[in-house]
Design a protein that fits this description.
The chain has helices at residues 9-16, 82-89, 172-178, 211-215, 220-248, and strands at residues 29-36, 39-46, 58-63, 78-81, 96-97, 100-110, 114-122, 128-136, 151-157, 181-183, 189-191. It is α+β, with helices and mostly antiparallel strands. It folds into 3 domains: 9-63; 78-157; 172-248, no CATH class. Strands 4-9-8-7-6-5 form a 6-stranded antiparallel sheet, with helices on one face. Strands 1-2-3 form a 3-stranded antiparallel sheet. Strands 10-11 form a two-stranded antiparallel ribbon. A hairpin with a 3-residue loop joins strand 6 (100-110) and strand 7. The longest helix is centred in the C-terminal third of the chain and has 29 residues, at 220-248. The two termini are 57 Å apart.
Length: 249
Protein backbone atom coordinates (compact mmCIF):
# COMPACT_ATOMS: atom_id res chain seq x y z
CA UNK A 1 0.00 0.00 0.00
CA UNK A 2 1.37 3.38 -0.99
CA UNK A 3 1.86 6.00 1.70
CA UNK A 4 -0.80 8.71 1.71
CA UNK A 5 0.57 12.05 0.53
CA UNK A 6 -0.45 14.81 2.95
CA UNK A 7 -1.67 18.04 1.30
CA UNK A 8 0.58 21.01 1.89
CA UNK A 9 0.27 24.59 0.56
CA UNK A 10 3.13 23.85 -1.83
CA UNK A 11 1.54 20.67 -3.20
CA UNK A 12 -1.85 22.32 -3.57
CA UNK A 13 -0.15 25.15 -5.47
CA UNK A 14 1.36 22.57 -7.83
CA UNK A 15 -2.11 21.06 -8.27
CA UNK A 16 -3.52 24.45 -9.27
CA UNK A 17 -0.70 24.86 -11.79
CA UNK A 18 -1.75 21.69 -13.61
CA UNK A 19 -3.60 23.69 -16.27
CA UNK A 20 -0.45 25.39 -17.58
CA UNK A 21 -0.82 26.24 -21.29
CA UNK A 22 -4.27 24.62 -21.52
CA UNK A 23 -6.29 26.77 -23.90
CA UNK A 24 -9.49 28.06 -22.24
CA UNK A 25 -12.24 28.01 -24.87
CA UNK A 26 -14.79 29.89 -22.76
CA UNK A 27 -12.67 33.03 -22.43
CA UNK A 28 -10.22 32.59 -25.33
CA UNK A 29 -7.24 32.69 -22.99
CA UNK A 30 -3.77 31.20 -23.08
CA UNK A 31 -2.62 30.71 -19.47
CA UNK A 32 0.95 30.39 -18.28
CA UNK A 33 1.07 28.99 -14.73
CA UNK A 34 4.06 28.26 -12.49
CA UNK A 35 4.68 27.86 -8.79
CA UNK A 36 7.31 28.94 -6.29
CA UNK A 37 6.64 27.28 -2.96
CA UNK A 38 3.04 28.11 -2.07
CA UNK A 39 2.80 30.99 -4.58
CA UNK A 40 1.08 30.39 -7.92
CA UNK A 41 2.10 32.81 -10.68
CA UNK A 42 -0.54 33.12 -13.39
CA UNK A 43 -0.17 35.00 -16.67
CA UNK A 44 -3.14 35.25 -19.04
CA UNK A 45 -2.88 36.18 -22.71
CA UNK A 46 -6.31 36.92 -24.28
CA UNK A 47 -6.47 35.96 -27.96
CA UNK A 48 -8.94 36.63 -30.75
CA UNK A 49 -10.94 34.17 -32.81
CA UNK A 50 -8.16 34.05 -35.40
CA UNK A 51 -5.71 32.90 -32.70
CA UNK A 52 -3.35 35.62 -33.87
CA UNK A 53 -4.74 38.84 -32.38
CA UNK A 54 -3.59 39.13 -28.79
CA UNK A 55 -4.09 41.56 -25.94
CA UNK A 56 -1.21 42.34 -23.57
CA UNK A 57 -0.42 39.61 -21.07
CA UNK A 58 -1.91 40.19 -17.61
CA UNK A 59 -0.22 38.80 -14.48
CA UNK A 60 -1.86 37.40 -11.33
CA UNK A 61 -0.71 35.67 -8.18
CA UNK A 62 -2.45 33.22 -5.87
CA UNK A 63 -1.06 32.44 -2.42
CA UNK A 64 -2.09 29.08 -1.00
CA UNK A 65 -2.28 28.66 2.76
CA UNK A 66 -4.03 26.27 5.10
CA UNK A 67 -7.11 27.52 6.95
CA UNK A 68 -9.33 26.12 9.66
CA UNK A 69 -12.97 25.46 8.73
CA UNK A 70 -15.32 28.32 9.45
CA UNK A 71 -17.15 27.84 12.78
CA UNK A 72 -20.94 27.46 12.86
CA UNK A 73 -22.97 30.67 12.81
CA UNK A 74 -25.88 31.17 15.19
CA UNK A 75 -29.26 32.11 13.74
CA UNK A 76 -29.82 34.86 16.29
CA UNK A 77 -28.14 36.71 19.12
CA UNK A 78 -28.10 35.85 22.79
CA UNK A 79 -28.79 37.67 26.05
CA UNK A 80 -26.50 37.13 29.03
CA UNK A 81 -26.88 38.23 32.60
CA UNK A 82 -24.92 41.48 32.96
CA UNK A 83 -22.75 40.12 35.75
CA UNK A 84 -21.64 37.18 33.54
CA UNK A 85 -20.93 39.50 30.59
CA UNK A 86 -19.04 41.84 32.90
CA UNK A 87 -16.86 39.02 34.14
CA UNK A 88 -16.16 37.96 30.54
CA UNK A 89 -15.08 41.53 29.75
CA UNK A 90 -12.32 41.14 32.34
CA UNK A 91 -11.45 37.54 31.40
CA UNK A 92 -8.28 36.92 29.37
CA UNK A 93 -8.55 35.83 25.73
CA UNK A 94 -8.67 32.04 25.54
CA UNK A 95 -10.05 31.67 29.06
CA UNK A 96 -13.58 30.47 29.84
CA UNK A 97 -16.24 31.48 32.33
CA UNK A 98 -19.67 29.96 32.86
CA UNK A 99 -19.48 27.98 29.60
CA UNK A 100 -18.33 30.97 27.50
CA UNK A 101 -14.82 31.40 26.06
CA UNK A 102 -13.37 34.82 25.30
CA UNK A 103 -12.18 34.75 21.66
CA UNK A 104 -11.24 38.36 20.97
CA UNK A 105 -11.19 41.73 22.68
CA UNK A 106 -10.57 44.79 20.51
CA UNK A 107 -10.02 48.36 21.62
CA UNK A 108 -12.36 50.49 19.50
CA UNK A 109 -12.01 54.07 20.75
CA UNK A 110 -11.15 56.23 23.73
CA UNK A 111 -13.08 59.33 24.75
CA UNK A 112 -12.28 61.75 27.56
CA UNK A 113 -13.72 59.63 30.32
CA UNK A 114 -14.29 56.17 28.85
CA UNK A 115 -12.71 53.48 26.68
CA UNK A 116 -14.85 51.52 24.22
CA UNK A 117 -14.30 47.88 23.31
CA UNK A 118 -15.58 44.99 21.17
CA UNK A 119 -15.87 41.57 22.79
CA UNK A 120 -16.27 38.24 20.93
CA UNK A 121 -17.22 35.12 22.90
CA UNK A 122 -17.89 31.48 21.96
CA UNK A 123 -20.32 29.01 23.47
CA UNK A 124 -19.71 25.29 23.93
CA UNK A 125 -21.36 24.58 20.54
CA UNK A 126 -18.73 26.70 18.76
CA UNK A 127 -21.07 29.59 17.89
CA UNK A 128 -19.69 33.12 18.24
CA UNK A 129 -21.29 36.31 19.54
CA UNK A 130 -20.09 39.89 19.80
CA UNK A 131 -21.01 42.98 21.80
CA UNK A 132 -19.69 46.50 22.43
CA UNK A 133 -19.06 47.73 25.95
CA UNK A 134 -17.49 50.71 27.69
CA UNK A 135 -15.69 51.27 30.97
CA UNK A 136 -14.41 54.28 32.88
CA UNK A 137 -10.85 55.50 32.64
CA UNK A 138 -10.41 57.29 35.98
CA UNK A 139 -11.33 56.70 39.59
CA UNK A 140 -13.98 59.40 39.28
CA UNK A 141 -15.54 57.69 36.25
CA UNK A 142 -15.13 54.15 37.54
CA UNK A 143 -17.99 52.69 35.50
CA UNK A 144 -17.84 48.99 34.81
CA UNK A 145 -18.97 47.24 31.61
CA UNK A 146 -22.77 47.12 31.44
CA UNK A 147 -22.96 49.27 34.56
CA UNK A 148 -26.57 49.54 35.70
CA UNK A 149 -27.82 46.89 33.25
CA UNK A 150 -29.27 43.52 34.13
CA UNK A 151 -28.98 42.07 30.62
CA UNK A 152 -26.14 42.26 28.05
CA UNK A 153 -27.16 41.72 24.42
CA UNK A 154 -24.72 39.91 22.12
CA UNK A 155 -25.18 39.65 18.33
CA UNK A 156 -24.43 36.48 16.37
CA UNK A 157 -21.20 36.99 14.42
CA UNK A 158 -19.33 35.05 11.72
CA UNK A 159 -15.62 34.90 11.01
CA UNK A 160 -14.47 36.80 7.91
CA UNK A 161 -10.99 36.23 6.48
CA UNK A 162 -9.24 39.12 4.76
CA UNK A 163 -6.10 38.70 2.67
CA UNK A 164 -3.94 41.83 2.68
CA UNK A 165 -1.47 42.49 -0.12
CA UNK A 166 1.79 44.00 1.09
CA UNK A 167 5.13 44.59 -0.59
CA UNK A 168 8.69 44.80 0.65
CA UNK A 169 11.78 45.89 -1.22
CA UNK A 170 14.86 43.68 -0.97
CA UNK A 171 18.24 43.97 -2.63
CA UNK A 172 19.27 41.45 -5.25
CA UNK A 173 22.01 40.19 -2.93
CA UNK A 174 19.50 39.66 -0.12
CA UNK A 175 17.22 37.78 -2.51
CA UNK A 176 20.05 35.48 -3.59
CA UNK A 177 20.97 34.86 0.06
CA UNK A 178 17.34 34.09 0.90
CA UNK A 179 16.96 31.62 -1.95
CA UNK A 180 19.99 29.57 -0.96
CA UNK A 181 20.91 26.31 -2.68
CA UNK A 182 22.02 22.83 -1.77
CA UNK A 183 23.25 19.97 -3.91
CA UNK A 184 21.14 16.93 -4.66
CA UNK A 185 22.61 13.45 -4.25
CA UNK A 186 21.64 12.48 -7.79
CA UNK A 187 22.99 15.71 -9.27
CA UNK A 188 21.70 19.22 -9.68
CA UNK A 189 20.81 21.91 -7.18
CA UNK A 190 17.60 22.84 -5.40
CA UNK A 191 16.38 26.00 -3.68
CA UNK A 192 16.29 25.47 0.10
CA UNK A 193 13.80 28.34 0.49
CA UNK A 194 11.22 27.27 -2.10
CA UNK A 195 11.40 23.50 -1.59
CA UNK A 196 9.02 22.19 1.12
CA UNK A 197 10.84 21.08 4.26
CA UNK A 198 8.97 17.78 4.48
CA UNK A 199 9.35 16.73 0.86
CA UNK A 200 10.20 13.09 0.18
CA UNK A 201 9.43 13.18 -3.55
CA UNK A 202 12.23 14.34 -5.88
CA UNK A 203 9.59 16.00 -8.05
CA UNK A 204 8.80 18.38 -5.17
CA UNK A 205 12.29 19.89 -5.30
CA UNK A 206 12.35 23.42 -6.71
CA UNK A 207 15.43 23.53 -8.86
CA UNK A 208 17.95 26.32 -8.38
CA UNK A 209 18.06 29.02 -9.67
CA UNK A 210 14.38 29.08 -8.69
CA UNK A 211 11.72 31.17 -10.50
CA UNK A 212 12.18 34.05 -8.03
CA UNK A 213 15.87 34.29 -8.87
CA UNK A 214 15.15 33.89 -12.58
CA UNK A 215 12.75 36.82 -12.31
CA UNK A 216 15.57 38.83 -10.67
CA UNK A 217 17.79 38.10 -13.68
CA UNK A 218 19.96 35.30 -12.29
CA UNK A 219 21.17 33.31 -15.30
CA UNK A 220 22.72 29.85 -15.46
CA UNK A 221 26.11 31.47 -16.04
CA UNK A 222 25.78 33.60 -12.88
CA UNK A 223 24.53 30.59 -10.93
CA UNK A 224 27.62 28.61 -11.91
CA UNK A 225 29.82 31.47 -10.69
CA UNK A 226 27.92 31.66 -7.37
CA UNK A 227 28.36 27.93 -6.82
CA UNK A 228 32.05 28.09 -7.71
CA UNK A 229 32.57 31.01 -5.31
CA UNK A 230 30.81 29.15 -2.49
CA UNK A 231 32.91 26.02 -3.06
CA UNK A 232 36.11 28.07 -3.18
CA UNK A 233 35.19 29.75 0.11
CA UNK A 234 34.51 26.37 1.75
CA UNK A 235 37.84 25.02 0.47
CA UNK A 236 39.70 28.09 1.75
CA UNK A 237 38.06 27.81 5.17
CA UNK A 238 39.01 24.13 5.39
CA UNK A 239 42.60 24.98 4.48
CA UNK A 240 42.81 27.67 7.16
CA UNK A 241 41.25 25.42 9.78
CA UNK A 242 43.77 22.71 8.94
CA UNK A 243 46.65 25.20 9.24
CA UNK A 244 45.32 26.36 12.60
CA UNK A 245 45.13 22.82 13.94
CA UNK A 246 48.66 22.08 12.70
CA UNK A 247 50.01 25.22 14.36
CA UNK A 248 48.37 24.31 17.66
CA UNK A 249 50.14 20.94 17.86
Amino acid sequence: MNAITPPTPERVADLLAGGDNDYHDGNDWWPSISTTGNVVDIAITPVGEDYETKLPKVHFQAHVFQVTPAPPVAAEGVELAADIARELAYTSVGKAYEGWTVVEREDIDTTRWKSHHWLVIRNEQGQHYGANYSKGLTEYQDTRPWEGDTIACFEAVSRQTTVVQSHSWVTRTALINLHDWDELIFGGFYCTHCTPDDTDDPDDNVMWPCPSLRAAGVTDEEAIKLIAARRAAVTEKSRRDAQGEAGAR
